[in-house]
Design brief:
262 residues; alpha/beta; Rossmann fold; 2 domains; 6-stranded mixed beta sheet; 4-stranded antiparallel beta sheet; 24% strand
């Protein structure tokens, strides 16, 4: 199976605290890879590296064989056009309609005619079940609808890679299941490479082709869902079986959590 993304010996620090500890793994092309882990595991920091928001201390992040960790901002801009991101809160601009939010990447990166952009906006919103909502503002939408609108915007440039940061966060179980079904539909229809960061096990079991599990900045698993379920690793069993542990944090653990690893 061909790999779309390969991470090699990735190390990163927040100050003197090592957050990712020489991790290595690969993500298969055209599949949905879920990055799984609890609070403080390093998954949010890893996502920020994969989409170019953070630079590592050392190591490589190869997307289509090119190391983005060593790229200049100008070089990475070309890669960025092939990447779509659904941020955790959808990150819609409240002062803009859904049509304007979805068309924003096209206005920034293309020279398409206005009429063409409007046709594409309608197509993207229809894909995510928001046909007819072009003139609505984010404040008029439910949480699930905002996530769908965020996915439409992430797909505006027909990306090769689509990243999702906690797509089920803040949603009720029924709405979350709807987002999972949408992810499945889009992946089957467009054959893109999806990368989903989550700690929601029902979502993992529904959407994942491949799973990477982090624990305190280290990769403790990389494989299929069936292999994950069959693992006898104590930390994996604790996570899958929802077993509690004593909340005794070292200063490094606490720093990792307040730095955004929640």
């Amino acid at each position: 199976m061909e790999n779309a993304i390969e991470v090699k010996n990735l190390v990163t620090h927040y100050g003197d605290v090592q957050v990712l500890k020489k991790i290595s793994f690969a993500m298969p092309r055209g599949k949905t890879t879920v990055i799984l882990g609890g609070s403080g595991s390093g998954k949010s920091t890893l996502l920020k590296h994969l989409i170019g928001l953070l630079k590592p201390t050392s190591g490589k992040i190869e997307i289509n064989g090119r190391d983005i960790a060593g790229m200049s901002e100008q070089e990475f801009n070309e890669v960025r056009k092939r990447i779509g991101v659904l941020f955790q809160g959808a990150a819609l601009l409240n002062s803009m309609t859904l049509a304007d939010n979805v068309s924003l990447p096209m206005r920034e990166h293309t020279k398409l005619e206005e009429s063409t952009m409007q046709i594409m906006v309608r197509m993207k919103l229809e894909l995510v079940g928001l046909s007819g909502f072009e003139n609505y503002y984010p404040s008029q939408l439910s949480g699930g609808m905002k996530k769908r609108a965020g996915i439409a915007r992430a797909m505006a440039m027909d990306p090769e890679f689509l990243f999702f940061d906690e797509p089920s966060a803040g949603l009720d179980p029924i709405t979350a299941a709807g987002i999972d079904e949408l992810i499945l539909k889009l992946r089957q229809a467009f054959k893109m490479t999806f990368i989903v960061v989550t700690h929601e096990l029902p979502s993992v079991f529904t959407i994942a082709d491949h799973v990477i599990m982090l624990d305190f900045g280290e990769v403790i698993f990389s494989g299929t869902i069936d292999e994950l379920k069959a693992s006898d690793n104590d930390r994996i069993r604790m996570f899958l079986e929802r077993k509690a542990e004593k909340e005794v944090y070292s200063p490094e653990d606490y720093f990792r959590i307040i730095a955004g690893e929640e």
